[in-house]
Design goal:
By secondary structure, the protein is mainly alpha-helical. The protein is 62% helix and 0% strand. The chain has one domain.
Length: 129
């Protein structure tokens, strides 16, 4: 993933624009960094959204395995960007700042959820069949 483009606020466009830089190597990074990602997601600040984050990881895993292909690449790239953003400790608000350092991470996550809501619903329907 290339350097994140900074905007004055985090929204769906922020996620969409940065997702355009994502490639298959970035998707593989999520798999390689899954222990770090899991450690971060276990932090109390992520408790409210932990299940949705796990669902995003599952979507990427099923996509990578080839068992779920109904999701468009732009959504896969947006999920990948978001998870890599969460892993990156030196994003817009550095994660070394207690609690406040994760505010931007949650904002990116919330923007992603608005951006790909329909794709998430499709995956949940597919999963339940």
């Amino acid at each position: 993933m290339k350097k994140t483009k900074h905007k004055p606020h985090i929204d769906k466009d922020f996620v969409s624009e940065n997702a355009k830089q994502i490639d298959k190597d970035d998707l593989n990074k999520i798999h390689r960094k899954r222990k770090r990602l899991q450690k971060i997601l276990n932090l109390k600040v992520f408790a409210q959204h932990r299940q949705k984050f796990k669902l995003l990881i599952e979507i990427l895993q099923q996509y990578k395995k080839g068992t779920y292909k109904k999701i468009p690449w732009r959504s896969v790239a947006s999920i990948t960007f978001t998870l890599l953003y969460v892993i990156n400790p030196f994003d817009i608000v550095p994660d070394v700042l207690p609690v406040i350092g994760f505010v931007d991470d949650i904002s990116v996550f919330m923007a992603l959820m608005r951006l790909i809501d329909e794709d998430i619903n499709d995956f949940e329907s597919w999963k339940s069949t």
